[in-house]
Amino acid sequence: MLNHRFAKDLPFTEGEYKRRLAKTRAAMERAGVDILWVTDPSNMAWLTGYDGWSFYVHQGVLVLPDADPVWWGRNQDSNGAIRTVWMGDDRCIGYADNYVQSTERHPMQDLAQRLIGMGLDKLRIGVELDNYYFSAKAYMTLAAELPNAKLIDATALVNWQRGVKSEEELVFMRRAAKISEKIVDGLIERVEPGVPKNEVVAEVQRDAIMGADGHWGDYAAIVPLLPSGSDAAAPHLTWDGRPFVKGEATFFEIAGCYRRYHVPFCRTIFLGQPSEIFLRAEAALVEGLEAGLEVARAGNRACDIANALAAPLESAGIERGARCGYPIGISYPPDWGERTISLRAEDETVLEPGMTFHFMPGLWMSDWGLEITESIVIKEDGAAETFCNRPRKMFVKD
Amino acid sequence: MLNHRFAKDLPFTEGEYKRRLAKTRAAMERAGVDILWVTDPSNMAWLTGYDGWSFYVHQGVLVLPDADPVWWGRNQDSNGAIRTVWMGDDRCIGYADNYVQSTERHPMQDLAQRLIGMGLDKLRIGVELDNYYFSAKAYMTLAAELPNAKLIDATALVNWQRGVKSEEELVFMRRAAKISEKIVDGLIERVEPGVPKNEVVAEVQRDAIMGADGHWGDYAAIVPLLPSGSDAAAPHLTWDGRPFVKGEATFFEIAGCYRRYHVPFCRTIFLGQPSEIFLRAEAALVEGLEAGLEVARAGNRACDIANALAAPLESAGIERGARCGYPIGISYPPDWGERTISLRAEDETVLEPGMTFHFMPGLWMSDWGLEITESIVIKEDGAAETFCNRPRKMFVKD
Fold it and tell me: Are B238 and B99 found together in one domain?
């Protein structure tokens, strides 16, 4: 019987969390890891339900082979942990506030002492060397404080377990998709020459958080991106107060989010009459998307999607250097991708039913850009299903 | 003469960037660092103007003693760099996309090759071991690829140079403050029993990005936090679709943001009649805030503010474990603090004119919470100036 001081509103069933834990433990065993130190907030949430904007300080979840996970973080955030994780309250441990941003002590010293106290300091400890928020200093401190442990690189070990979505997760993603559609509908309605960009983003954020279909909206792990004209060559610019201008294309990179699950969805709006270059690029891109969707099937490989996309683009004289997609699902800033598979020619990962991707063949040329994308789920049979249902085209407002 | 392919809309004057670079170089010399590798996005932006949501991949700025800084990042993001940094286009270097989230190669291998090519691989290289987005793996790869370099911990070296704000920066922060005031005014108007939380957040985000006083709003580095009732014990919970409830206090932790400069501002709203506990806590907190503001003067120390706050709280039987504030200014997710000084009893940093803080004495008790805060600037003479001008109290709506 778990000890819970507060009523919980866990996003998922107990069975779902048990499934995730069992999958992770099996992967730990394969990787030769006795215990796993998880710092990526998306992995923490996927395993335990923990949800809070506290990842700017050192924190994490310890996965053990034979006992419930332990949440460890700043004292004041342990109040958030006992309200959001499925484990018992006694599995949430806080460290003192004078470890926070101190030049004299490091939070990892506290963690190391806990591990020693639990008799876990002589084991093989997996650490997420290249996931978010596990700093170089955190690693060095842990290594120095645990001379008898063997620290093993377990980057993305948990991320890989997240690839195939459960039915419960797909329900969340379909809710997120409704929000994405609502945002794009609003953009097509509101973007006009002379309207300042920030005013459009203000409405996007409002739509995103109001939610859709009776479900509230969560914050996306990336803010809306919407570069125009020649700036659209740069995929990650945000916004300012300048107006949209006639004669320019703007792409809108947004995602609806429901309880941390994302469905990114991008469309481009051209104000005025697009040039031949744009129209040809649009036609090739849509053809490439459709070719990619057609081969996005269980049993095919990630690279098959990338190669199918590339053919019509190359015929149109467009060379893309970048990957054309990545897995999606639960996430926290700074990225809504899962950081495992990449849809590119050299990735031969076999696609499985329930995998979800943002098929994202953005064109970022030297002085223009175009994005038309789809978030998809791989089916048991047949081609991928798109989460959103809106015309697959560049919208022209003349 | 710098080579610029695109017209720039730099936030600051050339003199301001020169001042920042000179300050940083002097600090590097004091720290025994020949060249500095800066990965914290707020430091990158402060030094160069770089602005884009690309910090989810490896990137950084190289500060040299005798030449302009070099921006280095993903190829597609170098398009954003040449549009936003003050340096010449030839100072922006991109790495190939197949380094991104690859299991076979690491972007730091590319960086190391560049350093070797520039003849910089035998120097003392400062690295931000405990700033954001410099992963353990990034450090280990760089160290392995540069066996002749000496890597030196330069965590927060740049952050410390940012402490005293210029007049140009204070102009931005005053614009952000107007946005903060507008958000709080909207909260006081809109929060009512029965209104779902996400609907209020939707309006907060809309207000934030619409801006105020004719200036557009940027995204804050932290999303709005607004826990109610017993959840207010947990400072970093976000929102859901449940309604505000009569008989509960909710604190609102928000910040207006203008061109990446933040002015956080928190107020608490009680729906119904607050209990004696709340009223006593409010009175003690306001007294503590005023005592703290009074000693927040040039020449005094960070701890003087914390100690002045603590006295009336202790008289009221309230013990706070956490620090009561931090410096603020330019920032990117996941934190709007500057991560240098902490307002707490053990921090004896001397306050200087132009330093800016979020004086943030949140009360997070075991089953309730209260936040009334002020963002402040230290003056040449006299007590600190508050950026925002709204009643310093708990708002009661009965």
Answer: no
